[in-house]
């Protein structure tokens, strides 16, 4: 999930999740986790990989900690309390999310990922590129702040 500040009036897919959470479009949360990275850090890693000779021919995972939707909601609730009443409060059991995915296109996209261990390691990027990503909380906050500034929530 690539989060962080948006450039225009479009939220995109990943930041769209934060937007929908803040707008109260989800009555409950699926038990879904995904690695998070700030868009600015992804861009920096691409530049480093293209310009450092030691990176030639290498592949890098540019993602951070795998956060659940519940983790993202916790950050939004803590840092943007004005939106707290719109944020979902309940986690859907996987079996119920599976049933609901028949009727909800968003859930249908992630149904196969429910309950999956989404952890990855970005240690190679840190070691070889000297890459220092922002925290996942900062990426979430930057998404929310830019959505608010753009009038999209």
Q: Count up the domains.
A: 1
How many strands appear in the DSSP assignment? 4
Q: What is the subunit arrangement here?
A: single chain
Helix content, binned percent: 40-55%
Strand order of the largest sheet: 1-3
Based on Cα principal axes, name the global outline: globular
Poorly predicted ranges: none
Q: Which CATH architecture would you pick?
A: 3-Layer(aba) Sandwich
DSSP strand content: 5-15%
Number of helices: 7
- Write the element-wise H/E pattern from the N-terminal end onward: EHEEHEHHHHH
The CATH topology label is Rossmann fold
| Name of the level-1 CATH class | Alpha Beta
N- to C-terminal distance: 19 Å
Gyration radius (Cα, Å) is 17 Å
Mean pLDDT, to the nearest integer, reads 93
Class inferred from helices and paired strands? mainly alpha
Largest sheet: 2 strands, parallel
Q: What is the CATH superfamily label? A: NAD(P)-binding Rossmann-like Domain
Any overview of this molecule?
By secondary structure, the chain is mainly α. It has one domain (2-146): NAD(P)-binding Rossmann-like Domain (Rossmann fold), CATH 3.40.50. It has helices at 12-22, 39-51, 69-79, 94-100, 105-110, 123-129, 136-149; strands at residues 2-3, 33-35, 37-38, 66-68. The strands form two sheets. Strands 1-3 form a two-stranded parallel ribbon. It has a two-stranded antiparallel ribbon with strand order 2-4. Helix 1 packs across helix 7 (136-149) and helix 3 (69-79) packs across helix 7 (136-149). The longest helix has 14 residues, at 136-149. It is globular, with a radius of gyration of 17 Å. The mean pLDDT is 93.
């Amino acid at each position: 999930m690539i989060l962080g500040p948006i450039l225009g009036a479009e939220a995109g897919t990943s930041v769209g999740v934060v937007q929908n959470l803040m707008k109260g479009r989800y009555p409950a949360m699926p038990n879904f986790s995904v690695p998070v990275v700030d868009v600015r850090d992804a861009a920096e890693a691409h530049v480093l990989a293209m310009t450092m000779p030691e990176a030639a021919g290498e592949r890098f995972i540019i993602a951070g900690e795998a956060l659940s939707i519940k983790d993202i909601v916790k950050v939004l609730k803590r840092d943007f309390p004005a939106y707290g009443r719109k944020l979902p409060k309940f986690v859907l059991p996987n079996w119920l999310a599976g049933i609901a995915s028949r009727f909800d296109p968003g859930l249908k996209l992630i149904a196969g990922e429910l309950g999956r261990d989404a952890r990855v390691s970005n240690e190679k990027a840190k070691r070889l590129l000297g890459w220092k990503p922002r925290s996942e909380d900062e990426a979430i906050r930057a998404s929310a702040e830019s959505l608010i500034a753009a009038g999209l929530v």
